[in-house]
């Protein structure tokens, strides 16, 4: 029935974000036509969290060691948006995207499907 997940990052500077996804994060892509790149992602998962009000979905890239990944990203001049926080279920921070916005980065400590 469901064969995958398509994630969209809305940005005023799509070219710089595409370069970031390709050149910095190393995600491979295909041209869907006219230079419109669609990037492959690693395996994914989805969770439902409690909230008082419905909210927008959030995107988190996962890694095995968030401190090491942050150091590797900073060596590539990637701006990290905040300190690494220990949330119990994982260690979390955010990556600043070129042109504005952020995506989460976290080292999960929970069981993975």
Oligomer: single chain
Total beta strands: 6
Share in helix: 10-25%
Question: How would you spell out the order of helices and strands?
Answer: HEEEHEEE
* N- to C-terminal distance: 18 Å
Largest sheet: 4 strands, mixed
Shape: globular
Average pLDDT rating: 93
How would you describe what is shown here?
This protein is of the alpha+beta class and 113 residues long. It is 19% helix and 22% strand. A four-stranded mixed β-sheet has the order 3-6-5-4, with no helix packed on it. A two-stranded antiparallel sheet has the order 1-2. The longest helix is centred in the N-terminal third of the chain and has 11 residues. The protein starts with 13 loop residues before the first helix and ends in a 5-residue tail after the last strand. The mean pLDDT is 93.
Outline the secondary-structure elements.
Blueprint: H1 14-24, E1 29-31, E2 37-39, E3 60-62, H2 66-75, E4 85-86, E5 90-96, E6 102-108
Features:
alpha+beta, two-stranded antiparallel sheet, 2 helices
Summed up:
The protein has 113 residues and is of the alpha+beta class. It has helices at 14-24, 66-75; strands spanning 29-31, 37-39, 60-62, 85-86, 90-96, 102-108. The protein starts with 13 loop residues before the first helix and ends in a 5-residue tail after the last strand.
């Amino acid at each position: 029935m469901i064969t995958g997940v398509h994630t969209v990052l809305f940005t005023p500077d799509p070219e710089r974000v595409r370069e970031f996804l390709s050149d910095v994060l190393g995600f491979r892509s295909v041209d869907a036509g006219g230079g419109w790149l669609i990037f492959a992602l690693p395996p994914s998962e989805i969770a439902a969290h409690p909230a008082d009000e419905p909210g927008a979905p959030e995107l988190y890239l996962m890694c095995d060691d968030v401190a090491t990944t942050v150091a590797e990203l900073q060596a590539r001049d990637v701006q990290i948006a905040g300190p690494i926080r220990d949330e119990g279920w994982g260690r979390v921070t955010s990556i600043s995207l070129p042109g504005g916005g952020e995506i989460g980065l976290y080292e999960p400590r929970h069981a993975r499907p």
